[in-house]
Amino acid sequence: MIEIIQPGIFSSIQDLGRRGFRSIGVGQSGAMDAMALRIANILVGNSDDAAGIETTLGGLELCFDADCRFAVTGADAEVALDDQVLSVWSLATARAGQVLRIGWPDAGMRNYIAFAGGVDVPVLMGSRATDLKGGFGGHEGRALRQGDRLSLLAHTSQDDPGLPFGIAGRKTEPESDSPVTTVRMIPAAEWGQYSPDTQQSFLSANWQLDPASNRVGFRLRGPMLTAKTPRELLSHGILPGTVQLPPSGQPAVQMMDANTCGGYPKLGVVIAADLGRLAQTRLGDAVRFVLVSPEEALQALRARENLISAVRVVCHHRG
Amino acid sequence: MTGSRDVDDLSLSSLGEAAILCQLPEGSLNFDRQRRIWALAESAEALPGVVEVVPGMNNLLVLHDPFTLSHAALSELLLGLWAKASYKDCAGSVTEIPTSYGGKAGEDLPEIAARAGLTPEEFVALHAAGDYVVYALGSQPGFAYLGGLDPRLATPRRSVPRPLLEAGCVIIGGEQTAVQSRTSPSGWNVIGKTDIEFFDATKAVPALLSPGSRLRFVVKEIVL
Fold first, then answer.
1. B140 at the A interface (CB within 8 A)?
2. How far apart are the C-alpha atoms of A55 and B35, rounded to whole Å?
3. Is the interface score ipTM higher than 0.85?
4. N or C terminus: fewer CB in 10 A for chain A?
5. Domain containing A265: what range?
6. Are residues A127 and A18 in the same domain?
7. What dotted CATH number matches B94-223?
8. B182 and A133: CB-CB below 8 Å?
9. How far is A185 from chain B (nearest CA, A)?
10. Considering only CA atoms, which of A88, A175, A157 is closest in space to residue A117?
11. Average pLDDT, stretch A20-32?
């Protein structure tokens, strides 16, 4: 059992999300930075899709009431177990009564905490993820609050290294010193209907991530893209990563808690391999888009899966 | 609600690396097109490598595993399926939605009835006389996009959306009517309320309605 002492700005239970229920209006939900949650799970010996906690800009404090192996991944936050400073992207063992604190990150937005066994909340429609808009899943269908007590599932793995173990997390994504997050995008149906000027203006801008951005969607601020905007379309299925252009002339990117349907014209879809990096972009920081083909997106996805496989191999051979 | 049975060209586009959006030439919503979209959805769902199908309003989103079924291969299969897609029928049974019209829970009724040049009673009678079909579900869990609203009842959405509108509220937005399936923000006009639950995440079949479901509103009372 773990108890939430402070939930921070916004923390929720997430796994890799809900599939197969879009046709009844139920969206995907799940970790915004799926790779970070998967690696946290691999570090503690869980399956990739076990449920953990996703935090937003740190501020989380929780207390363990039994010994527990856990790992924190994601944003570059200061992590402490009582007075002991821990590295992000590493495995640690808490003793009963110890308190874990996730501080304000220097870079990135979201941290993931995986616990050996995973968080034990009911599986609804194949997932333990919180669907905040739907008000179900996760812990009582809502964000975590002070005093919430979460059970953990029994952990089956026998090896307990007892020693801290981690990976160099910053190497898991293409390194960049630039404060601009560049994400790759596959053009969508209406892209070709915009004028070359509008397309160029979209691709050359450093879009500022609006503070009103959240798990539902990211709003972008930059040059007005109003010229020759296609009109609203009949409602159709949309996915996390879909970049829409509403009549405001300012693009928005659908994220994990997005509606299943939408009708705004679409510029493109951020590739799956880059969605987690977009999710870690700090509010107020800049985002740029580059166009790629579906084939390039698949190469990137394969590269990501190879990296995760490599992490899995390393973790299974530790000690 | 009926329209031309010409086989419209299906246009396909990528929605990311793992989904294809199938759309029809622009035009107003068409019931026969929707019946073929349902048929396409059913046959596409059976294709190995297709992981999810999402019918929309005269369109279909097909999610696939791009490592086992490529974009190009899926596109070809979809065009083939579309060419021979039949017109899928609606459910035989009709779900009745007992509705209290007007009153606090349906407070926009007097205003939008007046706007349509009708008394609230006439407005309600026309609304309850409609034979509605679920084209698709989306937006919120269990929320059904319905076809079949009498054009006389069409009402533009409110300029300022309500920050929260309760589940069960019967609403009209533009040329569509619907029922709120979850308490959420809404810019649609509210004309009544039902106690029917449209979504329960804990049930084996969480949504009351599915594409092709038919429903009818039954007047429980009119509160003015």
1. yes
2. 44
3. yes
4. C
5. 180-305
6. yes
7. 2.40.100.10
8. yes
9. 8
10. A157
11. 96
